[in-house]
Amino acid sequence: MNEKTTEDLEKLRDLIDGVDQQLLHLLRKRLDLVAQVGAVKHSAGLPIYAPQREAAMLGKRRAEAEAMNISPQLIEDILRRLMRESYLNEKDVGFKQVKQDVGNVVIVGGEGQLGRLFGQMLTLSGYPVKTLDKDDWAQADTLFAEAGLVIVTVPISITCDVIRNKLTQLPEGCILADLTSIKTEPMAAMLAAHNGPVLGMHPMFGPDVGSLAKQVVVVCHGREQEKYQWLLEQIEIWGARLVEAEPERHDKAMQLVQAMRHFSSFVYGLNLCKEQADIDTLLQFSSPIYRLELAMVGRLFAQSPELYADIIFAQQDSMEAIGDYLENYQRALELLKSGDRQGFIDSFSQVATWFGDFAPQFQQESRAMLQSVNDMKSN
Amino acid sequence: MNEKTTEDLEKLRDLIDGVDQQLLHLLRKRLDLVAQVGAVKHSAGLPIYAPQREAAMLGKRRAEAEAMNISPQLIEDILRRLMRESYLNEKDVGFKQVKQDVGNVVIVGGEGQLGRLFGQMLTLSGYPVKTLDKDDWAQADTLFAEAGLVIVTVPISITCDVIRNKLTQLPEGCILADLTSIKTEPMAAMLAAHNGPVLGMHPMFGPDVGSLAKQVVVVCHGREQEKYQWLLEQIEIWGARLVEAEPERHDKAMQLVQAMRHFSSFVYGLNLCKEQADIDTLLQFSSPIYRLELAMVGRLFAQSPELYADIIFAQQDSMEAIGDYLENYQRALELLKSGDRQGFIDSFSQVATWFGDFAPQFQQESRAMLQSVNDMKSN
After folding, report:
1. Is residue A11 within 8 angstroms of chain B, CB to CB?
2. So what's the ipTM on this one?
3. Rg, chain A, Cα only
4. Are A339 and A217 in the same domain?
5. What is the value of pTM for the model shown?
6. Nearest alpha carbon to residue A150 among A113, A214, A186, A199
7. For residue B98, is it within any domain?
């Protein structure tokens, strides 16, 4: 690289540095303004996530960008990233308390990751939160006596037993709710153990999310919805989207995605381990799609074996789904071994037809996902 | 929402709109400056992707952000997204041509997606590109007579035959290269068919990438590297990262990631189809992680069945890997069926130990990936 080039590049880079300074100041300004929006919403008790407003705003920006010959997708991606930041900051202001004097909120299993997350959100919303963990059963009666809401979030393997054995003496008007990733059995157990309001929930996200904005919480109505409606509104104020479902329908869908996902990832990692794969080599060769896959599998093994054993062993019904998958895998492998190329193409086309318009939609979505994975690369 | 609130929100939103106007102008300015950097690099023949410079710049910005109480990750993510945009724009300027008078570049299979992508990149770099597709073999001799570089990118099922039968009469000094996703057999075929320079490559990305920046191209050296070194430099100028590998080592690694990935995704889709899953329901319930998974599976079925049949059937050796996976799956399912919780926990811990520090690293990476997937949600 000759001197002239070096000089030119340095000049330009200084100019870029200057632009980035202005960019930082603009970001600071925007974050502060959005924080003020948050404060206003907070005092008015409005949800932090307003899909329509967001869509309208993004639409305007996209149009303005196009007029300036800037890719609309660029400004949308940047603004979406900024919104995430603002959602995270909402926590600093706290959240509007939907209902006063509900009494204590007791979180059974409050020391677990998910229990802590909900405890934190409820505290940020002004509710008096008491946690009851495995060693605290001595004070249970005192805690329950004052309780207006009891949330069960203990290991899935003992959830139903805890409900059946420990939660039969709650105050009449107290809300009994759970956060278990299966719903049929825990719902039945809660309805049997408690005569008051009953609510089943399944937060569709890991405890490592910084904010509940845009996250999904599946809601199964148990009994006396009008009594726990405030809790659902509270969760919406945290930014989450509520999806109502029948326990059975929820569990069936979960078997197909969740149990399958956990089990396949487990076997995938087990397989890599048994094959003594060299992760460094795999990463060297890794295209965004394989890096993503490795990350998704590796992620599982950073977590507690007991937790996963509980999740997988709890879903006895999912064994059928897992077994079906095995059969389909065997049949597909037969096609390969017998060199039945046409047979493979036929089933492929059959599945493609079944996916219908979702296939191209998923292709587009995954492209965006893979691009942002590629953006993260640093070497 | 009362009038006061509406009023306050409107005021703040007008201010935010104003900030976003300035943001757009700043983006426009930065894109223009980076385009000038591209032009300087172009004339100097420097690669568009400069990892060190990028890392240094991001480091400075992160520090400045922290000083302003802005999350360093926010500015890094925004700048990375901006860089992607700039890489895409590089195409408009074209690329520095590393070597003059190489003669024609003939792309055998030039009508395929990958062939078109490489044809486009080479044309943007000033090389005379001729494509030779299945119906053009009549003019083959004329095309080859003038050729300084022949790139084979035909369906994997016929690659070796095409090399063996059609590419034996290339000019002595002509470079013979391929882009096949397996390397051992095509390399052997090329070395046998041609006495001149031979180069094997495997682009580790789909033809739908907008730019080669940060993408990986695996390189297998065949013969007379000094004669094709310019091509490797050219690819680096496009922003790609070259990873050298022995054909066998490459193919073994690919069996574990690529073949497995394709086949598992295929079976996963087949399974959803056979279970008659309701995709709408799955998406309603979808947490970022399942949405990502569905998108990755669905993506496969938006593509050509023949293409995938070719890829999967071409890798006979991978059948072993796929078979091993099946066995591990069966064994794991046995643990489930026999209710051997401890056995499950033991293998889980064994795999976790094997992943070692990669597990937490992958957990962190995947968190970032999942966050950006969540950002994309619009309802």
Report:
1. no
2. 0.83
3. 25
4. no
5. 0.84
6. A199
7. no
